Amino acid sequence: MEKRIEKRIEERGALKYLGTFNMGTSYQKGDAITYGGSLWVALNPTNSKPPGPDWQLAAKRGRDAAR
Asked: Where is 5: in which H helix or E strand?
């Protein structure tokens, strides 16, 4: 199992966090951005905003805390 995990990590490469989504930026596979309070990872090179077929939701926005 450890070999399979190592292989998957090698195939995917490291995530690269680029901050909040910026229209007009070209994102590459593995780029991670924040959009709408959620974290998204590009599955393919893309210029589109999430959600969509080129994006995978990594962490969904949580609820705001009561004040």
From this structure: helix 2-12
